[in-house]
């Protein structure tokens, strides 16, 4: 079995979500048009953006696929649709102090590729599958890929 990305295997337990996330995650508001959301995704080379309220509290996530399936494919104009129109349910998130094992479990269990990081009820960053993979063993990466990408 190979070692995690960190030099000391014990770091796997001590490393937190805050340590591995992209800090200062870009987010959009519920009132932003899907055109603005899509433009931000293009500029930042992202496939998803968190949706936050006026207090920077997470209230959803929009993916590029959501925009295509829930707006464009239905014949709607992205300039006229708002993030709130396609943002559904309560998104999965992780506390900033959660360890890497918890991050792995959350992403595997819910088959998600991007996980918002919350601290004091505010969105402070995002963890991508690439961020997580840097802190896993080869075996853990294989298990993660199988859990997230395998068809149910």
From TrEMBL:
Residues 21-78, 86-143 form the CBS domain. The keyword Transferase does not apply. SMART domains: CBS. Keywords: CBS domain. Transmembrane segments: none annotated. The keyword Aminoacyl-tRNA synthetase does not apply. PANTHER family: CBS DOMAIN-CONTAINING PROTEIN, CBS DOMAIN-CONTAINING PROTEIN CBSX3, MITOCHONDRIAL. This is Hypoxic response protein 1.
